[in-house]
Amino acid sequence: MFTSHILNNPAAHVTFSAPATPAHDTSYLGLTESQQLALSCGRRVHRVCRGWFGIIHTLLDQPGVRCVTTRRGVTLDQAPCVHQSRVVDDTLHLFGLQQSMILRTDAWYSGFAIDIDRASGTVTRSLRFFDAYGERIFALESTAPEGFAPNLIRPFLDSRQGREHTHVPMPPYSQFQAQPSYMERLERDGIRLWWQMPGDLPLNEVPGIADLPRSRLLEILGTDYAMRVRPEALAMNLLAECLQAQGPPMSLRLSVSNVGACQRTIGPLLEANIRENTLELSQGPDARLSLALKGVETIWIVRKPGYQGEILGIECHDIHGHLLLAIDDHGQPSCPWGEWASLLRILQPRTTAWLQT
């Protein structure tokens, strides 16, 4: 059983305040990151052509490379260890023993190689890829002192390297879209049946209903499979505190997904802290995750029938109902109602009812 001093401290800080805007953040000027880079093309920023598969295959095995998937305030950063890959249409699937990545390159719209200055000259440190709305969806970062080798990067550089003022459309989530107050009963029943089928915890949209927000999906499933946690700020503090206070580290799966990439990593959770309103999780030097808490609107406890038992997880959603982060036990059959389930019951005691079903 986990205990918490936060519950006994009425003066505990449990609200999410917005930190100051970083100096390099130009979003307050109305510029997306891809627009800023397009305006900076020249000596240190280079436009990349659209050979996405070639770039990934060429650079993924380089020493010191890290894969980074982002989605509006959340970042999952890990060292790749890929043992198997396959391509289906415009989607690249990469699998390792404790990680998986799905790169849907049909949603990749632009890419840039970014250099930094060194005593010996400039070295390429980062390749960043963006969707049509100018939001970063995936990146390859190099931690090697010499960065990415120039002879590997040069074949993928675009012939157009001048500065450009680009225009990007407004993202769909930034515009008000009235959600129907009801769904056809057949459609609701179909969603529940789809969720009840044994399988992995899905991160993407329901097949055939691409515009259904994740929060709305969980509402349709009902309390048999999803329960909301309130208050959100207290829940995140409790989550970090309980994860940090546990004895032997629990093996958990961290997942971040966006329109163009899905990245998942499994391993013992060695560190969990909240610093400057950011949740920081670490599975050691190979995998790190950070989540800006100011972007968290709702938190849910979910369960899903898996192949070897039930998958129990916690999800953080943004104000538009989209999934930011999922943490789950990846359906470990050895102890389906162990420490992880006990932790989730602290956050939402009503999940105790799931023990009876």
From TrEMBL:
Pfam families: HemS (PF05171). GO terms for biological process: iron ion transport. InterPro entries: Heme_Transport_Util_sf, HemS/ChuX_dom. It comes from the Bacteria. Coiled coil: none annotated. Residues 31-139, 213-342 form the Haemin-degrading HemS/ChuX domain. This is Putative hemin transport protein. It comes from Ectothiorhodospira magna. The lineage of its organism: Bacteria, Pseudomonadati, Pseudomonadota, Gammaproteobacteria, Chromatiales.
